[in-house]
Write a structure and sequence with these properties.
The complex is a heterodimer.
Chain A: E1 4-12, H1 17-30, E2 34-41, E3 49-57, E4 71-74, H2 77-80, E5 92-95, E6 111-114, H3 117-124, H4 130-141, H5 146-157, H6 164-179, E7 199-202, E8 206-210, H7 220-224, E9 230-236, E10 242-246, H8 256-260, E11 266-270
Parallel strand pairs in A: 1-4, 4-5, 5-6
Antiparallel strand pairs in A: 1-3, 2-3, 7-8, 8-11, 9-10
Helix pairs in contact in A: 1-4, 1-5, 3-4, 4-6
Chain B: H1 23-38, E1 44-48, E2 64-66, H2 72-82, E3 87-93, H3 94-100, H4 102-110, E4 116-121, E5 124-125, E6 131-132, H5 159-166, E7 172-177, H6 181-198, E8 202-207, H7 211-214, H8 218-231, E9 235-236
Parallel strand pairs in B: 1-2, 1-3, 3-4, 4-8, 7-8
Antiparallel strand pairs in B: 5-6, 7-9
Classes of the chains: A alpha/beta, B alpha/beta.
């Protein structure tokens, strides 16, 4: 890598965008790069896009902000809109192809590289390791040292690796990211998008409705069910979290899940005609 | 067909902006049911404050005003003077009602202005990251009290009890909780009817949950909310 590289990382608060930026810049600084990193938060609200602007350079950096980026890394569908202006025809856009469709990217993005990080992390490692896969790939592209990056991650995230197993899996996820080769696909249909249909389950006595597009996976309904008829299923909700499924044989139609659901995503009713 | 949400909810704004498991969703659901069952959807104007509560600005399908921090109640008092037939609901957090806007809450109660104030008490300043507030219980670990909130900073601010001392004798002042949605619904109904029928001040404090900032799961959040009831007794404050 020569000259100056301008990178924009974009995702949602809590995805580890700022952690990735810290790891990349601190290791690059050790490898004799001039670095600049500024976090950009939007309004002070949870769930809004979190953006990091990074410059790595061999020359002196005079100003940390820039208008056009060389790399844009987008990890969340809603964050794409906030980094649209950084994308030009020369920008290399890296996106999480398991949650973002290629149609969500602006038309000016010509060099598009999909990395199904969420899918790989959920299927092979732990769900939270998806940002390590991205870190691995990004550091490999930028030519940063493999071991230095991992040491930095260990230092920053050490507290979060509660067991040795999680740590080992995270390391493997990171190494997987290092070795990952971008696939050339059409990326038209992300696998981890919430389903938009409603789920209707019914038997002779009861009727249940669940809306996965509204469910945020808080689990209040499962805790409040007095007979344990609810449990998490494989269907994914709006935040790519599991949606509850209902066992109508056990259900007594008390309405607790309906009363406690903050999102209006579930309801059960007794069939009145039978009575 | 089965309805999973109240009729007075604005369906286009769903999924809403609150965090997963947020108590605001449960409270606004019961408020929606209260409005539905009283049939007041066309008469209600809602005011929302700064803080997490402002995310409710397009939650219900009623006209909504968003005001300066802590100034929701006086603005709605003025609105009510101009349009006496409207029912006004002032919806805010504990930061607005018991902190920056305490003077406004006290004086609205003292003058017995016909407004219904709903205060969401989630025991912290949630939108800015869960810092310790005056309603935080002693010993709670927050970003601004890493070893637990010191006991000499107070044992939890009891707003409704304070307001009771200055409020008119016919004013309705109560505390309720999200862990008991049926009690929540009946209390909200009473608070709205106090304004509609008797033109009196009504204030309801709702103990809420905040899984994001408490860093608790679903079960632990509800358990903590039940724990809060020992310090903040629920029921009408007399």
């Amino acid at each position: 890598m020569t000259g100056t590289t301008k990178i924009v990382l974009a995702g949602e608060g809590g995805q580890g965008i700022q952690t990735i930026a810290k790891v990349i810049t601190e290791v690059a600084a050790k490898q004799n790069f001039q670095v600049s990193y500024i976090p950009v938060f939007g309004v002070e609200q949870r769930g809004t896009p979190s953006v990091a602007l990074i410059i790595l350079s061999h020359d002196k950096i005079f100003y940390p902000r820039f208008e056009k980026a060389d790399y844009v890394v987008a990890l969340q569908k809603r964050a794409v809109a906030s980094v649209k202006s950084y994308i030009t025809e020369k920008t290399k856009v890296v996106f999480d192809s398991s949650t973002i469709s290629i149609k969500d990217l602006p038309t000016s993005a010509i060099h598009r590289f999909g990395i199904p990080a969420t899918q790989i992390a959920t299927e092979q490692f732990t769900a939270k390791a998806f940002n390590l896969i991205v870190t691995g790939k990004l550091s490999q592209v930028l030519g940063l040292d493999e071991d230095h990056i991992w040491q930095k991650i260990e230092k920053l995230l050490g507290k979060k690796f509660k067991t040795a197993e999680i740590k080992e899996k995270s390391h493997q996820a990171y190494l997987f990211g290092r070795k990952f080769v971008f696939e050339l696909k059409r990326f038209s249909r992300p696998l981890f998008q919430p389903s938009t249909d409603k789920i209707i389950i019914k038997n002779d006595e009861k009727l249940a409705q669940i809306y996965p597009e509204r469910c945020k996976g808080c689990g209040l309904c499962i805790v409040k069910c007095p007979v344990g008829a609810l449990k998490f299923s494989d269907t994914l909700g709006v935040f790519a979290t599991p949606v509850p499924e209902i066992d109508l044989e056990k259900c007594i139609a008390c309405g607790n899940c309906f009363r406690f659901c903050p999102d209006g995503a579930i309801a059960v009713e007794k069939n009145k005609k039978k009575k | 067909m089965l309805n999973t949400m109240p009729k007075s909810w604005n369906i286009e704004s769903k999924p809403h902006l609150f965090c997963p498991g947020c108590g605001h969703g449960i409270i606004l659901k019961q408020l929606g049911f209260a409005i539905d069952s009283l049939g007041l959807q066309k008469e209600i104007t809602m005011g929302v404050d700064i803080g997490c509560s402002l995310l409710a600005w397009d939650f219900l399908d009623v006209p909504t005003i968003q005001t300066h921090h802590g100034r929701t109640t006086p603005l709605l008092v003025g609105y009510k003077l101009v349009k006496p037939k409207r029912i006004v609901i002032s919806y805010m957090g504990d930061g607005a009602a018991w902190g920056i806007g305490l003077q406004n809450t006290i004086h609205a109660a003292y003058r017995n202005n016909p407004v219904t104030v709903i205060v969401i008490n989630n025991e912290n300043f949630a939108m800015t990251g869960g810092q310790a507030s005056y309603t935080t219980l002693p010993g709670t670990i927050t970003p601004t009290s890493p070893v637990g909130k010191p006991a000499d900073l107070g044992s939890g601010f009891k707003g409704p009890e304070l307001i009771r001392n200055v409020a008119h004798k016919d004013a309705f002042i109560a505390r309720t909780t999200v862990t008991n949605p049926i009690h929540l619904l009946t209390t909200l109904k009473k608070a709205i009817m106090t304004q509609k029928e008797n033109n009196n001040f009504a204030l309801v404090e709702v103990l809420s949950i905040c899984p994001t900032n408490w860093k608790t799961g679903a079960k632990a959040s509800l358990d903590l909310a039940s724990e809060m009831e020992k310090v903040y007794p629920i029921g009408e404050v007399k």
